[in-house]
Amino acid sequence: CRCSCSCVWSDSSEGNISPDSLRKFNNLGKFTYQEKLGLAGAMVDVSKWPLLSVLSAQEQAAVRQVYIFGTSANEAIYITHANEVFAFGLNCSGCLGTGDSVSTIVPKKLDFLQGKKVVSLSYGSGPHVLLATEDGQLFAWGHNVYSQLGNNTTSAGLSPALITNNLQSKKVTEVACGSHHSLALTQDGEVFAWGYNNCGQVGSGSTTNQPYPRKVTGCLQGKAAVGITCGQTSSLALIDNGEVYGWGYNGNGQLGIGNNGNQLCPCRLATLQGVCIQQVVAGYAHCLALTDEGLLYAWGANTYGQLGTRNKSNHLSPVQIMVDKERVVEVAACHSTHTSAAKTQSGKVFMWGQCRGQSMVLPHLTHFTATDDVFACFATPSVMWRLLSVEHDDFMTASEALRKEFDSPETSDLKFSVDGKCIHVHKAVLKISRCEHFRSMFRSQWSEGQQDVIEIGQFSYPVYRSFLQFLYTDTVELPPEDAIGLLDLATSYCENQLKRLCQQIIKRGITVDNAFTLLSAAIRYDAEDLEEFCFRFCVNHLTQVTQTTAFWQVDGGMLKEFISRASRCGAFKN
């Protein structure tokens, strides 16, 4: 067992987890940390990853990002708050980058990466490791029999080496590794591939190994990619218009193109025509794709039920799953596992596929709060599916103490009355807050001891409470349908950070039915980024949007402007 619970699994001939086992799992306690809305990266409870227990409390406190990888999940790389990179573990094929192939339980610093801020990290089966930095540099080390390091040799790389072939003027923003091939995505939306190419996974049109980065063209020519992912011997690219292209091995249908023939060049997933994909991930031989409406599709191998289709039959084309669940906001898979996970809008986490060696053929609700914990406790091997940011919860920080006292009648000295309900706050907090509205109010109108209750009539109770809570916590806990009112408040009070958080909430909650209403609000409140997002959503779902009540209730001027703008974008071309 890889987690701190006493799990008992069924030995039934069906290979599925028994109801008793599921009950035992469901009785696990909830974790103490919460994901922070609006912050980049995932927050992880390090206690779920046994390998990290070798770090001292002092070393754990210094960790900012961490990545556990390897064929047995026995290697780890972590980055400190000072941007120092350390590695420890088994060190197969020199994958730790320490300059030798000697295993170490004591973390060793990778001096070559000193001061580099890491933005993307991935590993292969050798393993080999790719790392992209904030300034767009690409580093590689580890196994290299198939030139998967991209340095034009087949010699193992025992230390991180800068990879520049064909990338001298490029800024790499994301990396992805298959078993023995590599992908890199540039800031310009170009995809480069190299390494083992026996099934066409490099996308060069042949099966000849590629010793250095080569731009993937064909159907990707002229298109801007925004995401990349790899299965063991397949590759996928997500385009900015929501299309997905795949190439490489397809024996289990993992390219989703309706057949099981390998593809030597990128091929579009035609079955996904009409939907706009915003995230795609690949497992060992299966894939998951999430649309901008929160719909989830799966395809490829299904030996362990990793597609979540209630059976173990492979699917050569995408099929929609979790149709009876609420909107999905994140999906997770890793090329070295047969495990799948998803998170819904309300924070529920589901898992399915190979879970601790057993098969789950349907998404099962867990008590986890992050998809990452599914891989820590149930994947084989228990590797991380993405680079994680670490939150420490062994003591209460000043911000956590402030969060705890929000709306506390016991300690407050000021109340806001909204819709007949009171919100309890502290004058001192509002006086020193970054909100110019309150700072000006206290300077010009108030002195200590005056007015303990303020009446608010312009905004609703949920909206104003969320605003005040934001001043205490930097987060917003509000459903998407109420975020428009908060966006109105943020605009009135000139709170730009709050505007950005509202826009994130609205983006996550956009649907065909409310898209035009949200577009109108974005225009009204001068939220340019949100306006562009809502406009693109309306164009991508034009037929459905034009049939909604909101579309025909908008004023004529805006309707005319939308039609004109959509026409300029080619929305009405056959």
TrEMBL record:
Keywords noted in UniProt? Repeat
Q: Give every BTB domain span.
A: 412-480
Domain of life from the UniProt record: Eukaryota
Q: Where are the RCC repeats?
A: 83-134, 136-188, 189-241, 242-293, 294-345
Record Pfam families: BTB, WD40_RLD
The family database entries (InterPro entries) matched by this protein are listed as: BTB/POZ_dom, RCC1-like_dom, RCC1/BLIP-II, Reg_chr_condens, Signaling_Regulatory_Domain, SKP1/BTB/POZ_sf
The residue stretches assigned to a coiled coil in this entry are none
This chain's protein is named: Regulator of chromosome condensation (RCC1) and BTB (POZ) domain containing protein 1
Q: Report the source organism.
A: Nothobranchius furzeri (Turquoise killifish)
Q: Give me the gene this protein comes from.
A: RCBTB1
